Amino acid sequence: MPGSKALRKHRTSLEGQAYLLTTTTMYRRTIFRDAEVSFAVCKALHQPWLWRDSQLLAWVLMPDHWHGLVRLGRDDDLSTLMGRFKSVTARAVPQCFRINGWLWNRGFHDHALHNDEGVRETARYLVANPLRAGLVDEIANYPYWDAAWIGARPDSICAL
């Protein structure tokens, strides 16, 4: 994939650092418009062993991509963590939605937050993506997101 090497060029993985992560579906297919597929990914996201000693602070699943805000632990680097995320979530999705077993494009984008004061603001921005994309009029009407600061969302099909 052109550009994926450039994405890794200056990548650093620092324990305790908060990162905004983005990955897209293979060929940017809008497979997360399907509730069954979205639910499978949401369920996989809530497996604590997926994140190990890293912490998933906030996330949103859009029709053709995923954004996550993660505080990196000591046991993984970003590439290992995202590789595990892609593997676990892809295996959770029915084969008919994958291309030769692949759900996600190669590579991912990461952005290290510069200070802790921006973590909650970044989480708010991240979970407001469905509003900006015109998918819903109120974020409460979009079921595929969560943030650590609000606890389990009883109205979400993803709050397991």
TrEMBL record:
Protein name: Transposase IS200-like domain-containing protein
Xref: SMART domains: Y1_Tnp
Superkingdom of the source species: Bacteria
Biological process terms in GO annotation: DNA transposition
Classification via SUPFAM superfamilies: Transposase IS200-like (SSF143422)
Record domain Transposase IS200-like: where: 14-129
Annotated PANTHER family: REP-ASSOCIATED TYROSINE TRANSPOSASE
